[in-house]
Design a protein that fits this description.
This protein is of the alpha/beta class. The protein has a single domain, classed as Glucose-6-phosphate isomerase like protein, domain 1 (Rossmann fold, 3-Layer(aba) Sandwich), CATH 3.40.50. Strands 2-1-3-4-5 form a five-stranded parallel β-sheet, with helices on both faces. Helix 6 links the parallel strand 4 and strand 5.
Length: about 190
């Protein structure tokens, strides 16, 4: 059991290192995009399924409440949290529409849409990124090796492995890095 624990730890470390090395410039670009949008009165909309839904909520909470420094709340919404909206859209239309209809209703030009999908092919995430593009929003996709979401997003933050757990661990690390970078851009006096 100890060997399994240590092997898992090493696999997580290795995956995170390769993901950050692959995405460091894209993380900086994403943080600048988010900071510019927030400064202009925009917001960040995040969405995903399952563990990715939890990541969307986690990152939105870091922006709205605080990350590591005291500062004003930043406009961010996880589109995974309103069960009445999600179930009414799923029932009346389809599960594929649960995020795109919210993006169309809430998104504005120059807001940032963040779609999270370990496969990169979740139909509702892909459809929401397309809706965001139509609205004139910037798009960021967190994916595994790629997929449709990565291909269509303005910025793709990819994790080059096939193990969902390692992808999700890297996604939350990249989400935390974005929160930190955005705070440092917007509130340099706090550092």
């Amino acid at each position: 059991m100890i060997d399994i624990i240590n092997d898992t730890l090493q696999a997580s470390i290795d995956t995170k290192k390769s993901a950050i090395a692959e995405n460091d410039q894209r993380l900086v670009k994403s943080a600048r995009l988010m900071a510019e949008s927030l400064t202009a009165g925009g917001k960040i909309l995040l969405f995903g399924n399952g563990g990715s839904a939890a990541d969307a909520q986690h990152i939105a909470a870091e922006f709205v409440n605080r990350f590591q420094t005291e500062r004003v709340p930043l406009a961010s919404i996880a589109l995974t949290t309103d069960s009445s909206i999600i179930t009414s859209i799923g029932n009346d239309y389809s599960f594929e529409e649960i995020f795109s209809k919210q993006v169309t209703a809430l998104g504005r030009k120059n807001d940032v849409a963040v779609g999270i999908s370990t496969s990169g092919n979740s139909p509702n995430v892909v459809k929401a990124l397309k809706a965001a593009e139509k609205v004139g929003m910037h798009t960021v996709a967190f994916t595994g090796k790629g997929g449709q979401a990565a291909d269509m997003a303005e910025i793709a933050l990819t994790v080059p492995v096939g193990v969902t757990a390692r992808i999700q661990e890297s996604h939350i690390l990249m989400g935390h890095i974005l929160c930190d970078l955005v705070d440092r851009i917007l509130f340099p006096e706090n550092f």
